[in-house]
Amino acid sequence: MNNRTLTSLALAFASFIGLTACTAAEPERTKSNAPLPPVSIKKYGDVVAALDFDHATAQTPLSRIDRNAPRFSTKIFHAIAVGTDRCLTEQGFQEVSSKTDWSPYPESEDRQYGLWSVEYASKYGVSLAPNRGPRELDTLALGVEFNKAYADCMDSAKDDLKEILTYTDSPDIDSTIKWQSHDRTRASKAGKKALVDWRACMEKAGVVLDPDDSRPSAQYQVRSKEAEIKVSVLEAKCGVDTGAVRTLYDTQARYEAAYLDAQAAQVKAFVKKRDKVLHELDEAIAGR
C-alpha cells in the first residue's frame, strides 16, 4: 500500500521496537524476563482498576510507566516522522509530519482476558473498532516517487533512533511486572473463579467454546458476521454481568501495585531511564 499510516508504521518496526498498535492481548514474555519473587496482595484490597466498559480499556498502577502506553509510543512515532521529514526535504519533497495530530492516540481494546465492550462487540464482533490506536498519515495523494522516498527515509530515521528503539524493545521491570501480574491473576483463587463464571455464563447461553482458551469457537467467525457478532456480544455481556471483568482487572491491579512496591529500587531506576528517553525523543522532535 502507498497509504502510509501510523498503524502501518507501528507494524513495520513492531518486531524491532516492541510496540503494538493493535489490541492488548496477553503480555509478551521473553527469556530475559526473569520471574520476580512472589508477592502478597492482602494489603492492596483498596487498589482497583479504572475501567472504561464502553471502550474496553483499563488503567492500572503500571499504566503510568508502561512503555506501550500511547503517551510514550506516540512520541516515538512523532520522532521517526520528524526524522523522515528531514530526509524527505533534503531530497526536495515536502514534509508531512506537521499536518498530523501528535497528541496521545485513543487506546485500543484490552482483550487479555476476552471481549468486554458490549458496545464494540455489537458493532464489530471480534474486529477492532476503527479510530482507536495510532492515527492515519495519508500520503497517497503525494504520488509514487514521494512514497518510494518515504519508505527509505523512514528506515534512515529509525537508524538514527536505533539506541532508543532498542531500549524500547528490551525487557525491563515494566514488562516483567505486566506479564507476572497477569499470570498471577489467572492463577489466583479470585481469578480462577472469575474465569469459570465467565465461561459458565457463555455456555449457559449456548455458546460453544474453544477448549484451548475457553473463548467462543472461531467457527462462529466463519459461519457469518451476524453469528460472530451475536456470540461476541454474549461474551462481553457475560464478562460484565458476572463481575468477572471487574474481578480480573482489580486483581491484576493489586498484583501490579504490590510488585511496584516490592521492586521500588528497580522501578525508580527504570523511570529515570524512561524519562531520559522521553527527553531525547522531545529533542529529536524539536530537531535538535
UniProtKB/TrEMBL annotation:
Domain of life: Bacteria
UniProt keywords, alphabetically: Signal
The protein's name: Uncharacterized protein
Signal sequence range: 1-24
PROSITE patterns membership: PROKAR_LIPOPROTEIN
Lineage: Bacteria, Bacillati, Actinomycetota, Actinomycetes, Micrococcales
